[in-house]
Amino acid sequence: MEELLIVRDPKIMLGKPVIKGTRITVELIVRKIADGFSIQDILAGYPHLTENQVRAALEYAAQMIADEILLEA
User: Fold this and answer.
1) Which site among 16, 18, 40, 72 is 20 to 30 Å from 59 CA-CA?
2) What CA–CA distance (Å, rounded) separates 73 from 32?
3) Can you point out the beta strands (E) in 1-73?
4) What is the pLDDT of residues 60-72, one digit of tens each?
5) What angle do CA 11, 16, 26 make, to 5 degrees?
């Protein structure tokens, strides 16, 4: 069974998805990538994270977009 790396808890960061055991949101990771940071840059800034955790955050964000239901206006 795969370890759960991304969690949501209404008591942590207002329920935003975070990397388990941290207060680092998926949103923060995605924004850093959008701003041109590499995964290695993120790991240098947050040395307690692993590459697997950062990749899990990106996968989580991609899956949320893939699962969106589009409504026609």
Assistant:
1) 72
2) 32
3) 6-7, 18-19
4) 999 999 988 777 7
5) 135
User: In angstroms, rounded to a whole number, what is the distance separating the alpha carbons of residues 65 and 58?
Assistant: 11
Task: Enter the tokens of residue 55.
Answer: 């990749």
73: its two tokens: 């206006």
Going along 5-61, which residue ranges are E strands?
Answer: 6-7, 18-19
Q: What integer pLDDT is reported at residue 59 of this predicted model?
A: 96
The whole-chain average pLDDT of the chain stands at: 93
- Rounded to whole angstroms, the Cα distance separating 53 from 66 reads 20
- The reply to whether the predicted model has a pTM over 0.85 is yes
Q: CB 65: neighbour CB atoms within 10 A?
A: 7
Determine how many CB atoms are found less than 10 A away from the CB of residue 27: 14
Residues 54 and 29: their CA atoms lie apart, in Å, by 7
